[in-house]
């Protein structure tokens, strides 16, 4: 399958991200979630000397080939989960790190990846490296109580038990094969809300569990402690409370750095969210929250 290298998806809060990260000539930055390369391009165009990008997704790595041609040695793509950055980067070697957590628009838009409840595709949902199961394996083989826990803990779905019970009953007749089969079942149980599909939270819960997303994020945030020097900047974009909570908790904990006690100081005291024009042009960004921090010695 051909991979479209063009920036067809507008990165969320890109202008605000660049302002907070403040990339400068002579500095090197990490784009922990390359996706379509929107953040990487913006950072390089701002004048950064180099961007080292990470992505676990094979398709994202293929899209990055055009960046190698365009930016040459100023760009480096690493096919790896961002939770393993320390295997490729030296301590204090990065001047700034940016994470755009969650799912890529490319992944949602490609039905065969199995992320979308609006398009019909196989029940997959694997982002790439580090995925433990497919969505099909979870809904067709896991116990009812385990499915309910996944939907409640990772999807924050209040009707997780009813959905899990319905999944067990339905799969006893016929195993689930497609995203639409699962979405249609959920829509019979969860009431519809304006602009919010009833299947949203269930699909979120399955996706987060399958890809170990919260564990990956927690590890990556801890790695930023050692990869950034004092004065280095960390920028995060979260799309739901579980991601944002990890970021807030991380910023509140002091850590040791060269026998000094350090912490992250917020750059933007108030969380940055998308403007109404951006939401109108890209409804998927409506829940995004951007936070920026500077690593400083605790006083």
Structural account:
This protein is of the alpha/beta class. The chain has two domains: 14-106 and 213-297, 3-Layer(aba) Sandwich (Rossmann fold), CATH 3.40.50.150; 132-210, DNA polymerase, domain 1. The chain has 13 helices and eight strands. It has an eight-stranded mixed beta sheet with strand order 3-2-1-4-5-8-7-6, with helices on both faces. Helix 7 packs across helix 8 (160-171), helix 7 packs across helix 10 and helix 11 (213-227) runs parallel beside helix 12. It starts with 13 loop residues before the first helix and ends with a strand. The model is unreliable at 1-7 (pLDDT under 50).
| Average pLDDT reading | 90
The CATH class of the largest domain turns out to be: Alpha Beta
Taking all Cα atoms into account, the compactness measure Rg is 20 Å
Spatial strand sequence of the major β-sheet: 3-2-1-4-5-8-7-6
Multimerization state = single chain
Residue share in β-strands: 15-25%
Full CATH superfamily name of the largest domain:
Vaccinia Virus protein VP39
Shape: globular
The total tally of domains equals 2
The SS-based structural class is alpha/beta
Strand tally: 8
CATH level 3 topology of the largest domain: Rossmann fold
Helix content: 25-40%
Largest sheet: 8 strands, mixed
Count the DSSP helices: 13
Fill in the keyword field for this structure:
299 residues, Rossmann fold, DNA polymerase, domain 1, 8-stranded mixed beta sheet, 13 helices, globular
